[in-house]
């Protein structure tokens, strides 16, 4: 089966400063493969500065790799020209974090959607263009009659972000690079936008590279995940396996900092002592392994707070069990 996209040991080094010139390795020997006939959602996750946006910029051809190759449907993207380059620009689309930045406040939504239609010659007539706009808006769950004719300030952030996805969809892309598409949208709209991305993959056969620092959303929509830290891949694989059984300490830390909600318990209901020691464990991956976590879970009522200190103490248990045990003896009895 042919590859849609293959990255082979791609690295990106930024050089900065003139007098005291120094360089940053933003991405190091990064490889991945997406199959043409298996549209999928792949998450690239990592904290700030781990190289996620650099990867997006490389994929979109905005910057060039310092080493390695990016092969799209058998061709190195650095060597594309003319019609091939145009096809690449059409087939690889992006949705960025800020749903406001893309819009020119003086133009209506219609204009935003008409520009790519004209640029890529996608419609035979005005009526055809209108149909295509309506189809794309409907595909992202928007009602064209409510949206067309409006200015950006007359739309919510979630609507704006879905219009960005609709704009990408108009071009019938094969690959969508979604760089933190929900991080500036309020929580109630996140699920809708993520569901839109999932529909693109499932119903329209578009592969999605979902770039995020948020493992919770990654877990909900992606099939596989690559965890980046300072430009290097720490761990990669099936999203379920990586999040439930992370192997690398950095991934473990990222997973432990996810605030899985427990709707049966309210914040602030836990004994003070446990909070002082670093608290609680509900939803904690370590609870079956870490004695500190297990003891806390035995308490009645069980403590449930998840916080950074807890993550740190669990991590500590793995690295420095003597300190973790001292904390545990301080904790019991509550
Ligand atoms: N144009 C640039 N010149 C020099 N260094 C850069 C440039 N762009 C990014 N970097 C550096 O490269 C590294 C990776 O940056 P990048 O923006 O790719 O990270 P990120 O994971 O997207 O971070 P964030 O989540 O904060 O956007 C960082 O150390 C950053 O400071």
TrEMBL record:
Listed Gene3D superfamilies: P-loop containing nucleotide triphosphate hydrolases
Gene Ontology CC entries for this record: plasma membrane
Protein name: Peptide/nickel transport system ATP-binding protein
Source species of the chain: Kaistia soli DSM 19436
Localization: Cell inner membrane
Any Pfam family hit: oligo_HPY
Domain called ABC transporter: residue spans: 5-255
The keyword tRNA processing appears for this protein: no
Membrane topology listed for this record: Peripheral membrane protein
SUPFAM superfamilies: P-loop containing nucleoside triphosphate hydrolases (SSF52540)
Annotated CDD domains: ABC_NikE_OppD_transporters
Family as reported in the entry's similarity comment: Belongs to the ABC transporter superfamily.
């Amino acid at each position: 089966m042919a590859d849609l996209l293959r990255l082979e040991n791609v690295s990106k080094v930024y050089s900065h400063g003139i007098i005291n010139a120094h360089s940053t390795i933003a991405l190091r020997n990064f490889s991945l493969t997406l199959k043409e006939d298996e549209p999928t959602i792949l998450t690239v996750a990592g904290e700030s500065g781990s190289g996620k946006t650099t990867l997006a910029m490389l994929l979109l051809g905005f910057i060039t790799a310092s080493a390695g190759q990016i092969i799209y449907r058998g061709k190195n993207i650095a060597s594309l020209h003319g019609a091939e380059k145009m096809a690449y620009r059409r087939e690889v689309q992006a949705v960025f974090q800020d749903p406001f930045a893309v819009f020119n406040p003086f133009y209506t939504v219609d204009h935003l959607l008409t520009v790519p239609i004209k640029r890529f010659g996608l419609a035979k007539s005005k009526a055809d263009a209108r149909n295509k706009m309506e189809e794309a808006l409907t595909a992202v769950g928007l009602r064209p009659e409510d949206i067309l004719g409006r200015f950006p300030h007359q739309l919510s952030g979630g609507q704006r972000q879905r219009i960005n996805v609709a704009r990408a969809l108009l071009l019938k892309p094969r690959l969508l690079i979604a760089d933190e598409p929900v991080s500036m949208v309020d929580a109630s709209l996140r699920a809708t936008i993520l569901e839109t991305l999932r529909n693109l993959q499932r119903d329209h056969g578009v592969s999605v590279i979902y770039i995020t620092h948020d493992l919770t959303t990654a877990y909900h929509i992606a099939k596989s995940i690559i965890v980046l830290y300072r430009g290097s891949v720490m761990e990669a694989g099936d999203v379920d396996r990586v999040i439930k059984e992370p192997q690398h300490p950095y991934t473990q830390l990222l997973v432990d900092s996810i605030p899985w909600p427990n709707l049966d318990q309210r914040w602030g209901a836990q004994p003070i002592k446990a909070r002082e020691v670093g608290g609680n464990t509900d939803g904690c991956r370590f609870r079956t392994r870490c004695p500190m976590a297990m003891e806390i879970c035995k308490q009645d009522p069980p403590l449930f707070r998840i916080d950074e200190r807890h993550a740190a103490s669990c991590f500590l248990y793995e690295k420095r069990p003597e300190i973790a045990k001292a904390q545990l003896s301080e904790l019991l009895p509550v």
